[in-house]
Specification:
3-stranded antiparallel beta sheet, about 260 residues, 8 helices, Rossmann fold, alpha/beta, single chain
């Protein structure tokens, strides 16, 4: 049985129908139709400005579509916030704010409607302690966040997203600002997490697409492709409009044959 047929047999984690998003007068997403099976690990790639982050925000219910629908486990996103964990592309956080790694992850346990003088429970603290062990940051729990490396900071954000025990984990470029060792650690962690939750990963790391994810979506305002995580010339031409060199350890490596005349970009 193919990967695609297995996915169809499983329940749907995300179902998007005819989704369009407009900012001002500018269409960002147009007529997106996408289904993500429960347990899938979907990679989303595309050029800057192609709507990848916007799509994640639509799944989260953070933006109102111009048309179309989004369902998460059969419900509107706003009714399902407790089952979605989210790691944003950039943490809108003052890196010099006096707060420890442990305290940041604890904020993932905050709930709406908190009473004044709220205090985290013993269970909250135990959950966070276990998460810090899982992501390999337990020894840094009391470190101030300005002292963290890029990779440690990203793993902290992943731990915070996991604090709600999500069934669906959304990540926006989690390896964009980390070194090679941290990148490998993050992808190993995500592969482990995928055993118990659905993952949707936005990335520019094309080398990770075929080796890490179970399925692939290519997005450039419209959905260019959704299927097996194997890039070919037709898909990349539709997505970027030119041949693409993938760079591994600083060395360009062509994985797709060139087309037409002229140099590659």
């Amino acid at each position: 049985m193919s990967r695609e047929s297995i996915g169809k047999a499983r329940a749907q984690a995300v179902r998007i129908r005819d989704l369009s998003v407009v900012f001002g007068q500018r269409p960002v997403l147009e007529d997106i139709g996408l289904e993500v099976a429960e347990g899938d690990y979907l990679g989303i790639i595309g050029p800057n400005g192609g709507g990848k982050s916007t799509l994640l925000k639509a799944i989260l219910g953070l933006i109102e579509p111009a048309s179309g629908t989004v369902a998460v486990f059969g419900e509107a996103p706003k009714k399902n916030k407790g089952v979605i964990g989210y790691v944003p592309q950039f943490a809108y956080m003052d890196r010099h704010f006096p707060i420890t790694l442990r305290e940041v992850v604890l904020t993932g346990r905050l709930k709406q409607g908190m009473a004044p003088f709220f205090r985290f429970s013993r269970e909250d603290k135990e959950i966070v302690g276990n998460l810090l062990e899982k992501v390999g940051l337990a020894e840094l729990a009391d470190r101030q966040i300005y002292q963290l490396s890029g990779g440690e900071f990203q793993k902290m954000l992943i731990a915070r997203a996991l604090a709600v025990h999500p069934r669906l984990l959304l990540l926006d470029e989690p390896t964009a600002s980390v070194d090679a060792a941290s990148r490998d650690q993050i992808f190993s962690l995500l592969a482990e997490l995928n055993q118990s939750m659905t993952i949707i990963l936005v990335t520019h790391d094309l080398l990770a697409v075929s080796s890490e994810v179970r399925s692939l979506a290519c997005l450039n305002g419209r959905l260019v492709y959704h299927g097996e995580p194997e890039l070919n010339e037709r898909i990349v031409n539709s997505l970027y409009g030119c041949p693409v060199d993938l760079v591994a350890h600083g060395v360009p490596h062509r994985v797709l044959k060139t087309h037409g005349e002229g140099g590659s970009q």
